[in-house]
């Protein structure tokens, strides 16, 4: 695969096929944990780690797995990596682990991961699969982080509160506050705020896309093929 | 030579959106005057502020969508949304909350779906819920009705409180505000007081809260005017009030001291306003007659459930929004059989 191929993979993952804003996959963690910027970032990085590792493994075993049993095999691969990530977070980021709680094991059910395994990794070589996993994961993380920042800013009037959960004691004074006069708009950190925030972010992305100069449509490649998964 | 097209003789003059909206606004007038009488100038200030904000937001949305501004702003639907919002919120609501609420109602609940006729939710109630969930303290600081109010505020004082948040000298929010009758009933029931004990307070009038019951009566008058003018049909208000009354009576007879009497539910909070002006919103409500009966009855049921077992003070807004969501489904199952169509019964 040529260099432009990798550039396209990265562009797809970060922007034009962003798993959160375009494919709308992985909405459960996306909506549930993005009440602060740090929570969003933490879960995003965990998801990215799982995505890269599962893409790599699925790509390596793609010729060994019969098509009839591929989905259970993918799920087992993903579940193993999620367990590994969960145990690592339990060991090294215990406070963040406590905050994210059930949503770390729930990365298993994130459609974005099995979606990439099925649609991309099982049909491509190792390196493109890893690049794809990294790009998709980073795109997902950016969306989680942006939504988390937005909701934290509006709902609590702070940004990067509790950053020490993730970056250690060094980050304990990273929190930015809009001032004690600002009474947060509570709905932003409640579940409806997640839906409203995500809707506004998608709208913003569509506005930006429509303002960008139109390019001639690129030939459809197999990497762009989107799949439908029925896993929740 | 021009032939004028003559319509059927029984048809009234042509109806239009702006005429409908103006008639609804007209029907709001008695209730709004009564509210101003009992709760002070804040109601009028809120109405004015909300209307101006609504018109500006509507014009802004039309400009962003590159559509003509005048015909849409001129249909008065945004003003009606603003007025319904203004009579639902507390009279001393800070100005920026009114602005946030109306901007949300017009831009995000109404225009983002395509404007009047396309919004699945009632904009005024969505804005009310947004603010109630976000700012519960400000949204529940109601003034006591005029006859119980020891510190009536002048027009200037009211405006000062709304726009700067500064209270007149020597007053605190606690001295100025009072729980609504509905709120105080359920708060005290939660403290395991008995209904008869709670009703001894001077807050209560003949059917519901003092002052509140008369506001309800004036809204009722406006609502009957709307039915007489055929702007709304009787189905939603009647089924909503009847189902609320029936279920409340049922529980009242089961345990008279734990559940207030049926008329209490009708004459406190925003029940009458909700039944005639909000649940009947032609855009977000059901359109089939049978569906309207189901829709109204479900709203009445939800109002009782949310008021009795829920955590928020009034339930009209939540009940209406929940049933807005169900309205397309209800309509789907209550389509009238087309004339001459055999229907599924014979199969």
TrEMBL record, chain A:
It is a multi-pass membrane protein. It comes from the Bacteria. One of its GO terms (cellular component) is endomembrane system. It holds the Pfam family Rnf-Nqr. It is found in: Cell inner membrane; Endomembrane system. InterPro entries: NqrDE/RnfAE (IPR003667), RnfE (IPR010968). GO terms for biological process: electron transport chain. Its main location: membrane. Keywords: Cell inner membrane, Cell membrane, Electron transport, Membrane, Translocase, Transmembrane, Transmembrane helix, Transport. The chain crosses the membrane at residues 20-38, 73-93, 99-117, 129-150, 182-204. Its EC number is 7.-.-.-. Belongs to the NqrDE/RnfAE family. Part of a membrane-bound complex that couples electron transfer with translocation of ions across the membrane. The complex is composed of six subunits: RnfA, RnfB, RnfC, RnfD, RnfE and RnfG. This is Ion-translocating oxidoreductase complex subunit E. The gene is rnfE.
TrEMBL record, chain B:
GO terms for biological process: electron transport chain; transmembrane transport. Its cofactor is FMN. It comes from the Bacteria. The chain crosses the membrane at residues 21-39, 45-62, 69-89, 95-113, 125-143, 155-176, 231-253, 259-280, 292-309, 315-333. Its EC number is 7.-.-.-. It is found in: Cell inner membrane. It is a multi-pass membrane protein. One of its GO terms (cellular component) is plasma membrane. Keywords: Cell inner membrane, Cell membrane, Electron transport, Flavoprotein, FMN, Membrane, Phosphoprotein, Translocase, Transmembrane, Transmembrane helix, Transport. The modification FMN phosphoryl threonine is found at residue 180. Part of a membrane-bound complex that couples electron transfer with translocation of ions across the membrane. The complex is composed of six subunits: RnfA, RnfB, RnfC, RnfD, RnfE and RnfG. Belongs to the NqrB/RnfD family. This is Ion-translocating oxidoreductase complex subunit D. It comes from Sedimenticola selenatireducens.
């Amino acid at each position: 695969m040529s260099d432009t191929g990798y550039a396209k993979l990265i562009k797809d993952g970060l922007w034009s096929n962003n798993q959160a804003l375009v494919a709308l996959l992985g909405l459960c963690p996306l909506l549930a944990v993005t009440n602060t910027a740090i929570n969003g970032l933490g879960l995003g990085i965990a998801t990215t780690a799982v995505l890269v590792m599962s893409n790599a493994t699925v790509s390596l075993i793609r010729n060994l797995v019969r098509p009839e049993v591929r989905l259970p095999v993918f799920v087992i691969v993903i579940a193993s990596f999620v367990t590994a990530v969960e145990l690592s977070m339990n060991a090294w980021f215990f406070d963040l682990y406590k905050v994210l709680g059930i949503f770390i094991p729930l990365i298993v059910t994130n459609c974005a991961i099995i979606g990439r395994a099925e649609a991309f990794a099982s049909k491509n070589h190792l390196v493109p699969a890893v690049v794809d996993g990294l790009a998709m994961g980073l795109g997902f993380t950016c969306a989680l982080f942006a939504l988390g920042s937005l909701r934290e800013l509006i709902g609590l009037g702070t940004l990067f509160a509790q950053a020490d959960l993730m970056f250690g004691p060094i980050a304990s004074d990273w929190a930015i506050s809009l001032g004690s006069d600002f009474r947060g708009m509570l709905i932003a950190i409640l579940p409806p705020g997640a839906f409203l925030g995500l809707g506004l972010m998608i709208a913003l992305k569509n506005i930006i896309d429509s303002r960008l100069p139109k390019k001639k449509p690129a030939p459809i490649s197999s990497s762009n093929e989107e799949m439908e998964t029925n896993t929740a | 030579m021009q032939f004028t097209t003559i319509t059927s003789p029984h048809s009234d003059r042509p109806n239009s959106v702006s005429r409908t909206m103006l008639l609804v606004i007209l029907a709001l007038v008695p209730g709004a005057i009564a509210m101003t009488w009992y709760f002070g100038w804040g109601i009028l200030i809120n109405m004015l502020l909300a209307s101006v904000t609504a018109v500006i937001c509507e014009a802004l949305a039309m400009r962003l969508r590159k559509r003509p501004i005048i015909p849409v702003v001129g249909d008065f639907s945004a003003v009606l949304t603003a007025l319904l919002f203004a009579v639902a919120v507390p009279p001393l609501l800070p100005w920026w909350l009114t602005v946030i609420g109306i901007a949300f109602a017009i831009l995000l609940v109404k225009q983002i779906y395509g404007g009047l006729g396309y919004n699945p939710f009632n904009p005024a109630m969505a804005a009310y819920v947004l603010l109630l969930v976000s700012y519960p303290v400000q949204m529940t600081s109601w003034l006591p009705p005029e006859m119980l109010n020891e510190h009536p505020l002048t027009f200037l004082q009211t405006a000062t409180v709304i726009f700067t948040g500064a209270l007149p000298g020597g007053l605190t929010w606690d001295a100025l505000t009072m729980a609504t009758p509905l709120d105080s009933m359920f708060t005290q029931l939660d403290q395991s007081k008995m209904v008869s004990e709670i009703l001894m307070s001077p807050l209560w009038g003949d059917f519901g809260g003092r002052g509140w019951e008369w506001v309800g009566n004036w809204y009722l008058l406006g609502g009957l005017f709307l039915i007489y003018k055929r702007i709304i049909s009787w189905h939603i208000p009647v089924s909503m009030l009847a189902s609320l009354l029936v279920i409340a009576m049922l529980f009242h007879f089961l345990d008279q001291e734990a559940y207030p009497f049926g008329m209490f539910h009708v004459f406190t909070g925003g029940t009458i306003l909700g039944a005639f002006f909000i649940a009947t919103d032609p855009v977000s409500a059901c359109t089939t007659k049978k569906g309207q009966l189901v829709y109204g009855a479900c709203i009445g049921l939800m109002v009782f459930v949310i008021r009795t077992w829920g955590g928020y003070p009034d339930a009209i807004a939540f009940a209406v929004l929940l049933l807005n969501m169900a309205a397309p489904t209800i309509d789907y199952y209550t389509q009238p059989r087309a004339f001459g169509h055999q229907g599924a019964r014979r199969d």
